[in-house]
Design brief:
This protein is an alpha/beta fold and 193 residues long. It has a single domain, classed as Ribonuclease Inhibitor (Leucine-rich repeat, LRR (right-handed beta-alpha superhelix)), CATH 3.80.10. Helices cover 10% and strands 17% of the residues. It is built from three helices and seven strands; from the N terminus they run E-E-E-E-E-H-E-H-E-H. Helix 1 links the parallel strand 5 and strand 6. The protein is globular.
C-alpha cells in the first residue's frame, strides 16, 4: 500500500523503459533513490501529497523525457535541484520552491530584515531554474521562501515567456512586505495570467 511506503528500492533505476511512476499519496516517502536519473524514458512522475519529501535527487535532471512532474502538496520540499531548468520539454510542474536567504540569517536590526553579510552563504538562486521551462501548461505555484535582495532574482524566472500557463500562484514564505512587493513586481507574468 503506497500510504505506508517509506522508501523505494534501489533497483528502481533498472526500469529504464518505465514511462510513468505514480507515487501520489505516499505520505511516508521521504526520498527518491539517487539513481532515478537512469529512468531516461520516464514521461510522468507524480509525487503529489508526498508530504515528507524534502528534496529531489539531482539525478532527476537526467530524466530527459520527463514531461509531467507533479509536486503539489509536497510541503516539506526545500528547493529544486540545480539543472531542473534543462528539462525544457517539461509541460507540468505544479509546485516550485525558490529559496532565498535563510531565516537563520535574518538580522532583526536591518531595515530590510535580511542580513546581507550572510547572503552569499545561504542564497540559492532557484528562480533562474524556471527561465527555460517555457512549455509549462496549466497551473504553477511558486513558493518563495526566505529573503531576497533584488527584482532581477524574480525576473530570472522569465514568467513572460510562459504563454501556455493558465494560472500562476505565488506564495511568500517570509521576507518583509516591502521585499515581497518588490519580488512580485519583478515576476512580470505573461499578460494572460
Amino acid at each position: 500500500h503506497c500510504k505506508e511506503l517509506q522508501e523505494l528500492p534501489g533497483e528502481l533505476g533498472g526500469l529504464e523503459k518505465l514511462l510513468a511512476l505514480n507515487l501520489s499519496f505516499c505520505w511516508k516517502l521521504e526520498k527518491l533513490p539517487g539513481n532515478i536519473g537512469k529512468l531516461t524514458n520516464l514521461h510522468s512522475l507524480d509525487l503529489q501529497r508526498c508530504s515528507r519529501i524534502q528534496e529531489l535527487p539531482s539525478s532527476i535532471i537526467q530524466c530527459v523525457n520527463l514531461r509531467h512532474l507533479h509536486l503539489r502538496e509536497c510541503g516539506q520540499l526545500k528547493h529544486m535541484p540545480l539543472g531542473l531548468g534543462n528539462l525544457t520539454h517539461l509541460q507540468t510542474l505544479d509546485w516550485f520552491v525558490a529559496r532565498g536567504q535563510s531565516w537563520g540569517s535574518i538580522d532583526p536590526d536591518s531595515p530590510n530584515e535580511c542580513n546581507q553579510s550572510d547572503a552569499a552563504d545561504d542564497h540559492v538562486d532557484g528562480l533562474a531554474e524556471l527561465n527555460h521551462l517555457n512549455s509549462l501548461k496549466e497551473t504553477l505555484t511558486i513558493r518563495v521562501d526566505g529573503c531576497w535582495s533584488s527584482v532581477s532574482e524574480a525576473m530570472a524566472a522569465n514568467l513572460q515567456a510562459k504563454e501556455k500557463l493558465q494560472e500562476l500562484r505565488i506564495i511568500f514564505d517570509g521576507g518583509s512586505r516591502k521585499d515581497n512587493e518588490m519580488m512580485l513586481q519583478g515576476f512580470q507574468p505573461h499578460a494572460n495570467l
